[in-house]
Amino acid sequence: MPTIKNLDDLKRIREEALEKRKLKTASGNVQVVVGMGTCGIAAGARETMKAILDTIEKENLSGITVTQTGCIGLCEREPIVMVTVGEEPKVTYGKVTPEVARRILKDHVGAGKIVEDHKIAM
Amino acid sequence: MKYYRSHVLVCVDPDCLRKGAHEALDAFQDELVAQGLIDEVQVLETSRIGACSQGPEMMVYPEGVHYAGYTVDDIPYIVEEHFLKGRVAKKFELPAETAIDEELSAPTPKEVRVVLRNCGKIDPENIEDYIAEDGYMGLAKALTSMTPEQVIDEVLASGLRGRGGAGFPTAKKWQFCRASTGQVKYVICNADEGDPGAFMNRRVLEGDPHAVIEGMIIAAYAIGSSQGYVYCRAEYPIAVQTLNIAIEQARTMGFLGQNILGTDFSFDLEVRMGAGAFVCGEETALMASIEGKRGEPRPRPPFPAVSGLWAKPSNVNNVETYANVPQIITNGAAWYAGFGTEKSKGTKTFALAGDVKHTGLIEVPFGLSLREVVFDVGGGIKDDKGFKAIQTGGPMGGCLPEAYLDLPVDYESLTAAGSMMGSGGLVVMDDETCMVDIARFFMEFTQEESCGKCTPCRVGTKRILEILDRICGGEGREGDIELLETLCEQIKQDSLCGLGQGAPTPVVSTLKHFREEYEIHIREKRCPARVCKALIRYEILPDFCTGCTVCARNCPTGAITGERRQAHLIDVDTCIRCGICMQVCNFNAIVIR
Amino acid sequence: MTIATVDGKVVLEAVDKAVKEHGATIDELIPILNDVNRALGYLPANALDEISRRLRVPKSQLFSVSSFYRMFSTKPRGKHVIQFCESAPCHVVGGRQVWASLLDHLKIGPGETSQDGKWTLVTTSCLGVCGVGPVIIIDDDIYGNVTPDQVAEILARYGETRE
Ligand SMILES: Cc1cc2nc3c(=O)[nH]c(=O)nc-3n(C[C@H](O)[C@H](O)[C@H](O)COP(=O)(O)O)c2cc1C
Ligand code: SF4
Ligand code: SF4
Ligand code: SF4
Ligand code: FES
Ligand code: FES
Questions:
Q1: Is residue B353 within 8 Å of C92, Cβ to Cβ?
Q2: Quick one: closest CA in B to A42, which residue?
Q3: Beta-carbon contacts of residue B63 (< 8 Å; ≥ 6 apart)
Q4: pLDDT digit string, tens, across residues B54-97
Q5: Nearest CA in chain C to A41
Q6: How far apart are the C-alpha atoms of B555 and B579, rounded to whole Å?
Q7: Integer CA distances (angstroms), B114 to B46, B278, B399, in order
Q8: CA distance B330 to A12
Q9: pLDDT band at C162; cut points 50, 70, 90
C-alpha cells in the first residue's frame, strides 16, 4: 500500500481505484459480493463464502472477483450475495445458503440465468 | 431415496397457521392421494416464504411458482391445474417479485442516505474502496485548505448535533475542548451502543469504518488532539475486528500517524473494548472504563471538554456523529443543512422495531412525522392491527400515543412531548400491547443496568419495579399510581447520571398517556390487552372445539382434559398461561379471557 | 470430568502474555482482564493475585473492577460458554422457545455450568443482530435465526474432538 503524502497523491489513488473498478466491469468480469456484517455471519455468510470460494477453486472458474461488504440492511434476507456480470445490472440474492450459492455460480455466473427464487428486487 | 418431481412448500409460520396452513397441508395430502400423485409430489412445511399476509402461502418447486390467497376449497383446482395439467393456476399466483420482496424493497423514497451511504456497497476491509467513494477527501480538504477554526465553523454551520442521545451541538463541544488549556487532549468515539434493539452504530462500524476514522481525525485536527480512542462494546467483536483492520490500513496509507498528508498534524487511534456494562455508554463512565476502573459515572461539571480522560480535556462523540463529519467538510455545511428542520439538521439513522411491517435500519431526514416513519417507511402495523404507541429514545425514552403521530421527528419535539431522541431506537406497539407490561419491561432493564453508585437510582428503580410487578401480578393497590409518580419524580431529580434521570421516563409517559390502563389493572384486576399472565385465563370455546386433542398433547402442565371428539377443558389452577395450546389449536377454539 | 481449576502454571503464562501484550499499567487493566478471562475462561484468584503484583494495583481494586463487568467471571466456567440474547426483539421472534430448548438440552439453568464442565449458559442483553434473531453465541461463533430444533445440532458441533 502506498503512503499518501499530499492531496495529489490522494486524488491519484482515487483515480486508480475508480479505474480498477471500471476495468473489472468492462472486461466482463464477474463480481460476487457477500454481506459479511455480524448479522450476515450469524445467518451463515461464512459457510456461503466458503462454498463460493470452494466451488470456484474446484471447478477452476476464472474471471470472478469475490469480495465482502458490510450490512446491506435487509437483515431478514441474510445471507446476502450480490452478483454483477460485466456491465449488467447488479443482482441481489437473499437467503443464500451454500446450496443456493452453488446454484448461483452455475446458473447465473455460468449460464447467465438469474436464480429467480432468491432474487431480491432492489 | 424416493424421487419427487415436485415439492410443495407450505408456510407454517404463526401468521399462516392462523390462516389455516395446517388445513391446507392436510387438504393437499388428501387431494394428491385422490389424484394418485402422492408419489410424485411431496408436501413440506416451511417457514416464511412471503409476507404471510395472504396466507397460507405456498411455493411449488422446481418451477418456483408462488401461490397465495386460496382457501382449502381451491386446493383440488390448484392440484388439477398445476400437477395434472401442468400449467400455473393463474388465479392464485403471486408474481415472483411482489411475492418475496414487496416488503423489502429498500430504500424507500423517504429515506436519505448520508451516514449509511457506503454500507453494503463497499468492502470495509479495503481502504481503496472507500477512497474511490471520495473517502478521505474531507480530511484532505480540512488539512490542506482549512484552519481548525474554519473546520469548527463549517461544522457549526452544518447544524450537526450529537447522535448519541442528548443532541448537543457538535461544533460547540469541539470549541470548548479546543479552548481548554493543556497540551494533551483526547478524541473519543462512543461505540458502546447498548440500547436493546438498536444496531445503527454497529452497521456503520462494520460497513464503513473509515467514515468514523476520518471523522475522528478531522475532529482531532479541529480540537488539537493527537490521540484518540474508540470505545466499542465487547458484544461487537466483528465491528472491533473490522475497525482494527481499517485503522491499520489508514496508518499504512498515512492517514494516521506522524505528519498526516505531509502536514505537521499527527494523530493516532486505538480501539478499547468494553466488558459488558450498559452504563459505560455514559461518557464519564466510559472514560473511567478506559482508565481501567469500574465504569461508574461521576458528576458533571467538570465536563469532559475540561477534564476528561486521565483528567485531560476530552471530546466524546457518538459513532454516527463522527461519520457525518467527512461529508459535511467535503460537500459543505449548506449541503448538509439542506436536510432536516430548523433546529435539527441532517439525517438520523433509526432502528425501527416492534409491530411494524418492515423492521430494520432506516436513515431519514429530521422532520419527517412519526406517522411517515411508521406508515410510509415502516409500512404500517403488522397484520393490519391498530397502532397503539411508539416508544422513542431507547430504554430511557417515552411512549407516545396516536395523538402524537404527526409530531415531527426532531430533538425538540420529542423532548417537548415527554420522550426523547436517544440514539435512535423506535419501537412500534400495536393495540394488543399492554402499556403497564411495557413500562415494567423497560424498568427491568434499567434496574438491572443501574451501576448502583447512587441510592435514588439503585433503590428507586427497584421499588418502581416491585410496584409494577405487583400491578401486573393482579395485586395492585389504591395509591400505587401516586406512589409511582412520587418515586419517578425523586429518581429523576436526584440521580447522578442520565440512566437514573431517564429511567422513570417509560413509566411517566405511560402514566400520562395510558393512565386508565393502570387503573383497570389495579381496580378491576383486568389486563385490557390480555397480556399480563396473572390477569388472564385461557378458555376453550366448546362450540368451536372439535376434540382433536392437539392442545392436550401439547400442554406442558397437563392442564387440558377431554375425550377425543369431545370439547376439551382447561383447568385454571394447573394452567401456567404459556399460550402453547392457543398456538397449536387449528380451530381457533382457544381464547383469552 | 468435573470443573478443573486451572493449573497454576497456565495461569501465570496467561497473565504474563496479557501483561506483555498491553504493558504493566493500570490503564491497560481492562484489556488485560479481558485477555486473561478469555484465555482461562474466567479470572481465578491466583490470576488476580498475579495481576495485582505485576501492575501494583491493590487486590481490592481488582475485585471491584472485575465484579463490575458482566463479561468477567470469577467462577470457573465450562469449556464452552453459551450466551443467549434475552432482549425483547429476539424474544418476540421465538427466543422463548429456543431458550426452552436450550434448557432442555443442557439441563442447566442460567448462570450455571454443567456437571461435566462442558457448558456454561449465560444470558446477555441485545447483541445488536436482532434482524436475524433469535441469537445465540457459543464461544466466538454467532448463530442467528435459531429455531428450537436446531439447538441439538448446533450443540453437537462442539463435540469431544473439538478442543
Ligand atoms: C446510561 C447512558 C447510556 C448511554 N449510552 C450511549 C451509547 O451507547 N452511545 C452513545 O453514543 N452515547 C450514549 N450515551 C450518551 C453519552 O453520555 C454522550 O452524551 C454521547 O456519547 C455524546 O456524543 P454525541 O454528542 O455525539 O451525542 C449514554 C448516556 C447514558 C446516560
Ligand atoms: S443514576 Fe444509576 S447508573 Fe447513574 S450513577 Fe447513579 S446508580 Fe449509577
Ligand atoms: S381446543 Fe382446539 S386443539 Fe384443543 S381439542 Fe379443541 S379443537 Fe383440538
Ligand atoms: S396456556 Fe399453556 S399451560 Fe395453560 S392450558 Fe394452554 S398449554 Fe396448558
Ligand atoms: S444490519 Fe446487517 S443486513 Fe441488517
Ligand atoms: S434483541 Fe437479540 S440481538 Fe438484539
A1: no
A2: B238
A3: B6, B88
A4: 667 777 766 667 788 888 888 888 888 887 777 778 778 775 44
A5: C142
A6: 9
A7: 38, 28, 28
A8: 17
A9: very low
For a ligand 3 pocket test, name from B18, B541, B548, B591 the mutation site with the most ligand atoms within 8 angstroms of its C-beta: B548
Q: What is the pLDDT of residue B106?
A: 43
In chain A, the number of structural domains is 1
- Collapsing DSSP to helix, strand or coil, B282 comes out as coil
As for the ipTM of the complex, it is 0.86
Contact between residue B134 and residue A101 where contact means Cβ atoms under 8 Å apart: no
Question: Are B543 and B561 found together in one domain?
Answer: yes
- Residues B438, B159: Cα–Cα separation, whole Å: 35
Element (H, E) at B149: helix B148-158
* Residues whose CB falls within 8 Å of the CB of residue B313, separated by 6 or more in sequence, listed in order: B177, B180, B181, B182, B185, B186, B304, B305, B306, B307
Tell me, yes or no, if A66 comes closer than 8 A to chain C by beta carbon: no
Domain hosting residue A36, numbered range: 27-120
Distances (CA, A) of A56 to A30, A52, A113: 12, 6, 18
- Which pLDDT does position C2 carry in this prediction? 38
Report d(CA C38, CA B78) in Å as an integer.
57
- Which stretches in chain B have pLDDT values below 50? 1, 96-107
User: pTM, whole model, 2 decimals?
Assistant: 0.81
State the amino acid at position A84 in one-letter form.
T
- Is residue B107 in a domain? no
| Residues of A whose CB is below 8 A from C129 | 38-39, 42, 75
pLDDT digits (tens, 9 = 90+) for B312-330: 999 999 999 999 999 999 9
Domain that holds residue B249: 127-337
Quickly count helices (H) and strands (E) in chain A. Answer: 5, 5
Q: How far is the centre of ligand 4, averaged over its atoms, from the C-alpha of B532 (Å)?
A: 15
The yes/no answer on whether domain C80-156 falls in CATH 3.40.30.10 is yes
Residue B317 sits in the same domain as residue B236: yes
DSSP string, B328-360: HHHH-HHHHHTSB-SSSBSEEEEEEEESBSS-E
What is the four-CA torsion angle of C86, C90, C96, C98, rounded to 10 degrees?
-100
**% of chain B with per-residue pLDDT over 70:** 93
State how far the Cα of C67 lies from the Cα of C70, in Å rounded to an integer. 7
- The three cell numbers of residue C8 are 497454576
Residue that has been written with the C-alpha cell 450498559 in this structure: B278
Out of A5, A6, A17, the one facing B132 most closely (by C-beta) is: A17
CATH number for position A74 = 3.40.30.10
